[in-house]
């Protein structure tokens, strides 16, 4: 457009027409994509408030006749859902905080400290990331049993702090690798030691990125299923996602109650996301504005 | 650079994560062997027949054992399946738990030495007298973990078998007689097809389809045939008369429209919903549906055994097992004894389960009476023939996909049987 030699007025008409033409397909595609994302959630929400008899008679796609909240209520009581929420918050919160701290420390050494052999260290962290959790089950079980931590929430916190920190280290190392050297050098000239550089310069400047990591770690840990299933044996220690499994029987499933439970399970993560949404967008945008 | 506000925020965050970590240090209260608590796990829903009966058993137990508390935890089926070997190998094992019967589950655990041998208790307390031969099969495992003989590692409270559920209202609506023989069943299905109704509910993606076929084969088989197939007593030939009849008849039924080809991808839940919603007049499946149909079907329905056969699918239910690492084994035996008592067994029957040791006269509901009477007649003629997927690990998936090919017509019955023979010979233990 900038090279156009037309008058301002005609130039603008051409531009509006063009943007309109190119925008609508994009909008349409976005609407369709959004529908694909929202429809499963809607189906869950609709079936969560149906009675089992209604579900069996009309199938999963019909609209409910009225609001049937017994499924939600009886699921809450059956699994003592309040306790599961506390457990999930405890585990996800501790993991998110711990993993971010660990990632910052690692990434400081790799990205800014440029330790020797950092490529190999990074490769190791990537490897830890791609390792399927199924492969971890037995070693983690054995180690925690030996350490007397089997069936404690602490064992899950330790394991996930390490797993999430592996990803965090990888990501943050790349971010900190491009950290403006001038700022650090200026601080060093002013007499700051390494520790002060980290906490007073690097962490405050990269706070938006750390905020994003925190949110992601929280939500990822919240949704974890396999390791908590294996490690948290007592019902008192279980997380929300494990509690949902109680409803899947050997041969029968309670479809409406499963939907009610799924709705209850996903709500806290959505609330958490909405609360921290601003941090999230800021963190993603921070790299773009330069 | 670091303002006061930021410092407090950082301190608060650090303090919070510290609190979280400290708070999470609380350990679990694994039971102790003081004889004061019974730790009990099972995975039946609180409103199912077993859930209700076992709730009553807990009450009864606490009444007869003053000072002893039952610490019951409801588990998910999947959690028990995935974690049982690990839990039982730790000090957190419960004193008593429900576990899936079969070679791949209870058999395997017994082989790994994780279960207590119950043989002495079983004979002393007379549980073996209460269980019929077919039900007993899944309680005993030999040194190789194969069911049917050897020591007792579990005790079932209930049984399960397959039966024909039929919608009486639909039969009436089309003026079709309720069948009592195999010939009448065929005639009834023909009439439904003429009326444009697909008579049989089916689920090609799960166990329903293979169970139709296995039942057809069973109607031409005997006990020795079942033992050969399920307990590896001899060589199974899939091209024998029974299997050939089963596969050919099944393919013929698909051609005649007794089963809809469109059900090839359907799940069990779809088949059940098509029966409950009154679309399909007949569903052949297990007694485990009974409670749900009772609660949700809004029409008049009945059940009968597959006509003109001595054998049908079924077995003992899931087992009570006592882990080797259990700390209060005597309490666990007492609890099993209570669940085998007539009172709890009758309750299980009245709630729509199939009890193994109930008094038929004490069952009041007419539909439940029919369910239990049919089971008793079956168990008298030793008619429980287990399930087709049992003999070989992962045979279930082979049966599902091969039966799907049979439904679409991609495989002829002959090729179908070849494929089964292949998978069976590869997977069955050599003895």
TrEMBL record, chain A:
Q: Name one GO cellular component term.
A: plasma membrane
Q: Which Pfam families match?
A: BPD_transp_1
Q: Name one GO biological process term.
A: transmembrane transport
Main location group: membrane
Compartments in which it is found: Cell membrane
Alphabetically ordered keywords of this record: Cell membrane, Membrane, Transmembrane, Transmembrane helix, Transport
Q: Which residues are listed as membrane-spanning?
A: 21-46, 85-108, 120-142, 154-176, 197-222, 257-276
> Which interval of the chain is the signal sequence?
none
Membrane topology annotation: Multi-pass membrane protein
Q: Which residues form the ABC transmembrane type-1 domain?
A: 85-276
Query: Does the keyword section mention Transmembrane?
Result: yes
Q: Which PANTHER family does the record match to this protein? A: ABC TRANSPORTER PERMEASE PROTEIN MG189-RELATED, ABC TRANSPORTER PERMEASE PROTEIN MG189-RELATED-RELATED
Q: Which family does it belong to?
A: Belongs to the binding-protein-dependent transport system permease family.
What is the name of this protein? Carbohydrate ABC transporter permease
* Organism whose genome encodes this protein: Streptomyces acidicola
Record lineage: Bacteria, Bacillati, Actinomycetota, Actinomycetes, Kitasatosporales
From TrEMBL, chain B:
Note whether Signal occurs among the keywords. Answer: yes
Concerning Pfam families, the annotation shows: SBP_bac_1
Q: Name the UniProt key words of this record, in alphabetical order.
A: Signal
Q: Which InterPro entries match?
A: Bact_solute-bd_prot1 (IPR050490), SBP (IPR006059)
**Superkingdom to which the source organism belongs:** Bacteria
Question: Which residues, if any, are the signal sequence?
Answer: 1-22
Task: Tell me what this protein is called.
Answer: Extracellular solute-binding protein
**Record organism:** Streptomyces acidicola
Organism ancestry: Bacteria, Bacillati, Actinomycetota, Actinomycetes, Kitasatosporales
């Amino acid at each position: 457009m900038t090279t156009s030699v037309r008058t301002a007025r005609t130039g603008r008409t051409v531009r509006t027409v063009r943007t309109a033409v190119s925008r609508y397909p994009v909008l349409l595609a976005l609407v369709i994509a959004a529908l694909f994302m929202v429809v499963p959630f809607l189906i869950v929400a609709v079936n969560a408030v149906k009675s089992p008899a209604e579900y069996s008679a009309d199938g999963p796609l019909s609209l409910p006749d009225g609001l049937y909240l017994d499924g939600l209520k009886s699921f809450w009581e059956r699994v003592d859902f309040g306790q599961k929420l506390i457990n999930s918050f405890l585990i996800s919160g501790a993991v998110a905080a711990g993993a971010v701290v660990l990632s910052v420390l690692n990434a400081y050494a790799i990205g800014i400290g440029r330790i020797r052999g950092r490529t190999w260290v990074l490769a190791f962290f990537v490897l830890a990331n791609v390792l399927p959790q199924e492969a971890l089950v037995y070693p983690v079980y054995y180690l925690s049993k030996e350490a007397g931590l089997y069936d404690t929430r602490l064992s899950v916190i330790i394991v996930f702090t390490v797993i999430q920190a592996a990803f965090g280290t990888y990501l943050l190392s790349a971010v900190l690798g491009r950290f403006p050297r001038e700022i650090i050098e200026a601080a060093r000239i002013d007499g700051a030691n390494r520790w002060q550089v980290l906490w007073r310069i690097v962490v405050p400047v990269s706070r938006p990125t750390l905020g994003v990591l925190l949110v992601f770690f929280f939500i990822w840990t919240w949704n974890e299923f396999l390791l908590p299933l294996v490690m948290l044996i007592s019902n008192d220690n279980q997380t929300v996602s494990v509690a949902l499994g109680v409803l899947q029987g050997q041969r029968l499933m309670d479809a409406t109650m499963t939907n009610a439970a799924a709705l209850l399970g996903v709500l806290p993560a959505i609330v958490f996301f909405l609360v921290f949404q601003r941090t999230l967008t800021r963190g993603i945008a921070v790299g773009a504005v330069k | 650079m670091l303002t006061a506000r930021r410092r407090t925020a950082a301190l608060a965050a650090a303090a919070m994560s510290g609190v979280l970590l400290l708070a999470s240090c609380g350990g679990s209260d694994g039971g102790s062997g003081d004889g004061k608590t019974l730790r009990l796990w099972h995975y039946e829903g609180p409103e199912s027949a077993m859930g209700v009966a076992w709730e009553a058993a807990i009450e009864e137990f606490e009444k007869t054992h003053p000072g002893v508390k039952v610490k019951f935890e409801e588990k998910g089926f999947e959690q028990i399946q995935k974690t049982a070997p690990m839990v039982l190998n730790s000090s957190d094992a419960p004193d008593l738990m429900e576990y899936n019967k079969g070679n791949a589950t209870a058999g395997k655990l017994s082989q790994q030495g994780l279960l207590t041998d119950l043989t002495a208790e079983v004979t002393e307390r007379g549980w073996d007298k209460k269980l019929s031969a077919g039900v007993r099969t899944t309680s005993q495992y030999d040194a190789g973990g194969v069911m049917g003989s050897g020591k007792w590692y579990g005790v079932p409270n209930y049984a399960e078998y397959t039966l024909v559920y039929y919608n009486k209202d639909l039969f009436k609506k089309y003026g079709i007689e309720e069948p009592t023989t195999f010939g009448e069943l065929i005639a009834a299905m023909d009439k439904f097809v003429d009326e444009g109704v697909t008579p049989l509910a089916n689920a090609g993606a799960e166990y329903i389809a293979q169970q139709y076929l296995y039942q057809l084969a069973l109607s031409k088989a005997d006990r020795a045939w079942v033992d050969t197939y399920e307990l590896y007593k001899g060589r199974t030939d899939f091209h024998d008369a029974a299997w050939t009849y089963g596969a050919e008849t099944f393919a013929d039924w698909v051609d005649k429209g007794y089963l809809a080809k469109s059900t090839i991808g359907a799940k069990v839940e779809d088949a059940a919903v098509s029966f409950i919603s009154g679309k399909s007049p007949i569903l052949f499946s297990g007694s485990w549906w009974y409670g749900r149909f009772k609660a949700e079907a809004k029409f008049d329905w009945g059940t009968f055994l597959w006509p003109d056969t001595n054998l049908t699918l079924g077995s003992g239910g899931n087992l009570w097992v006592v882990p080797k690492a259990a700390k209060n084994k005597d309490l666990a035996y007492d609890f099993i004894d209570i669940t085998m008592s007539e009172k709890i067994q009758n309750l299980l029957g009245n709630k729509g389960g199939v009890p193994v040791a109930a008094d038929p006269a004490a069952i009041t509901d007419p539909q439940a009476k029919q369910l239990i009477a049919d089971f008793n007649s079956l168990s008298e003629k030793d008619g429980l023939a287990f399930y087709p997927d049992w003999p070989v690990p992962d045979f279930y998936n082979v049966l599902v996909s091969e039966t799907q090919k049979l439904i679409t017509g991609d495989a002829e019955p002959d090729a179908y049987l070849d494929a089964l023979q292949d998978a069976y010979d590869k997977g069955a233990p050599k003895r």
